[in-house]
Amino acid sequence: MTNSAEAIASKIRAGYAEGAIAGARIHGSLAADKVEIHHLPAGPKDGIWDGPTWATALLEAVRSLQNAISDFRQEAEITVVGDEIRTVSTIKGALKDGTALSHTNRSVMTIKNGKIVKAINDNGGASESRQLLLKALSQSSSA
Length: 143
Hints:
Blueprint: H1 5-18, H2 20-29, E1 31-40, E2 47-50, H3 51-68, E3 70-81, E4 84-94, E5 100-112, E6 115-122, H4 128-142
Parallel strand pairs: 1-6
Antiparallel strand pairs: 1-2, 3-4, 4-5, 5-6
Helix pairs in contact: 1-2, 2-3, 3-4
């Protein structure tokens, strides 16, 4: 049952246990050739992505966060319900000005034939922590 959602979740857990970069690499390596991506709230990049493009975007996002947030840490809780992998990922650290950050993303990924075919990410919308996260990323990109 190497293609089961639980087997895939185990691989993702093992990656994140090694760190955020390893987690993103393994996570991305499990993408199907095409992945349906949705964000809550909806975003301009929602739609069908090439799997390798999505994998690269995941890795680049983590690298950007590491550069933008002092003492960057990511904790991931991963569970399985049927053919879905559900994650609760909390990003912690501090903005360059010292403001503490703790932001939680929730996602649901659908698994088919051992690959991620759909991902829905609830990134917290207009929450205060989401705004701090965006502030950190904008400060990093303008530095």
